[in-house]
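Box 3.1 A note on notation
Throughout this textbook, protein chains are presented in two layers. The first layer is the amino acid sequence; the second is a token string describing backbone geometry. Keep the layers aligned when reading.
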Amino acid sequence: MTSPSTSSDVWDARTAEAYDADNVGMSAPEVLGPTLDRLVALAEGGPVLELAIGTGRVAVPLAARGLAVSGIELSQPMVDQLRAKAGPDEIPVVVGDMARVRVPGAFALVYLVFNTISNLLEQDEQVACFANAAAHLRPGGRFVVELGVPDLRRLAPGRDATIFETGADRIGLDTYDVVTQRMVSHHFRFAEDAGTTQAALFRSRHRYAWPAELDLMARLAGLELEHRWAGWSGEPFTAESESHVSVYRLPA
């Protein structure tokens, strides 16, 4: 299911209802805590905007720390899950495409976490997303992007897939098209029911981008790279880093 304005998948009610349970590890204090600490520090007390706010994994605890949080989200079912945690007066959300929709106000911080910019499947959409983020910033404001580094070095000759997760009840693998910079994440889940193993498959489509490509998108939007870390705790970014947190700033 797609929207006429974007190539991204629009997550349905079933996916939205299972989202928090499927990603419970991302809400663990040791994972989420450094994310919140960093965002609070970068916001410097100002209002913040989350692109692809989802079910509020980051936004709800961030608002609980005293920041004014707004959001943009393409999927109404995801917003419905968020509304079970916070009302529209607490965290206002505009339903629409994060590459194009505008939210009233000027923000100290716009952020996009958990690889979500890769949900935009065309380079033009990712470029537009940077421009839209910059348009929401007040002078000196920051745009933060968390994104994985493409795992192409692990591709064996003649192969187009890598395994990113294994466990007793789950398997995950990514398939790549290196010509179009597209990848599909395949999430297999297994459960026992009356002695029978039940299997479920969820797929998500992505367009991967290298850090240097994001830097160029930022320059086109009038933003400058301020920091790049390997994680939310400020670990140095190296050639071996599997992901990065990049902070871009609108000149004052």
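The chain is about 25% helix and 30% strand. Residues 29-43 form the longest helix (15 residues).
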